[in-house]
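Input record (Table S2, row 418):
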Amino acid sequence: MPDAFADLVGQDEAVATLRRAAAAAAAVLRTAGERAKPTAAPAEDADAISAGAGGDPGAGMTHAWIFTGPPGSGRSVAARAFAAALQCVHGTGCGECPGCHTTLTGTHADVRLVVPEGLSIGVNEMRALVLRAASTPSGGRWQIVIIEDADRLTEAAGNALLKAVEEPPPRTVFLLCAPSTHPDDISVTIRSRCRVVPLRQPPAAAVAEVLVRRDGIAPDVARWAAAATQGHVGRARRLAGDPQSRARREAVLAVPRRLTGVGAAFDAASALIEAAEAEAEASVTEIDAAERAALETALGAGGTGRGAAGAARGAAGQLKDLERRQKSRATRAQRDALDRALVDLAAFYRDALTMALGAPVAPVHTDTAELADAGARSWQPEGALRRLEAVLACRTAIEANVKPRIAVEAMMLALWKG
Ligand SMILES: [Zn+2]
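Output record (zinc ion complex):
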């Protein structure tokens, strides 16, 4: 049975909340349709939705939502599924009607998706978005703005968003995605205006099931990929289907074997950094070139008539601006690639630690379980824990803006020394 929430894996509680809210939202639309002038609602609330339907605050709909959870838990999948349920002509998220279909494929006129490309979402982008979100929904239901990585809003952009969330137009819904509701991720004032939907890390078995059902991946490969990526749905799918992604993971998991001396530790650090750079470059090069070509065409390279000099100065500014944004995006892609590698490496030492403790849990990396077991025996729990902490400290340092190469070199030395 098709269903807008089908791909939201292992999140039964969140799905139940969102289904109730979608039903309440549909009831609001019906009421507004039946009564040209609502009399039960306070005048300034018109057909606003915060009161919900039926008096149960748990069932109610509200204008602003935050989806939180670890990477890969499905924050943006949840936001999109909820948006589909709100635009669904049946009000349920049937997955089949035009409202559901266009929302899920990203072509609905009243659903805007913001995916930050650089390290942060800027104020101009946010102002334009807020302005458009205030217009009347063309489909007669809701204007929906989905902001992926809302933790990457600049302070000014956050303030622009806050104004809209504080005084929402009656038919506008904001869906924000962030790792957590910690003040580092989302401002306290925005948080206080939103309802939070916490998502958990989905169990590997549930992820494997969706890879088999939706992507047609063989069950044994799906189970391995789901375990190796610790329930990260998107990464599991790539790992199962993309040879390059497998090769990168294997190179990372070879690191513990390669740490035979100081020189080897520095070599391993260089290899890790360069692999992240290469992966990032591969992901942005094509789109960088396409953007530049499109801008140059739009600017009409090489005019000579009156005003051409002024136009050329303006064009140079726009190209500079594009280069700046592209550089920011490349930095972000590099950090993300490096972080994925560190997560894989941390899981290896976590496997060694659980083995050293004799804990009855399955290893994350079944294919390096023997190596982790050998490590567990020679390091003891304390040694395995120190190594795990060295990897986590490296992630923290990079987050705190320590130069990645320096942080990774320090980590490799710590791993070698044990
Ligand atoms: Zn539908």
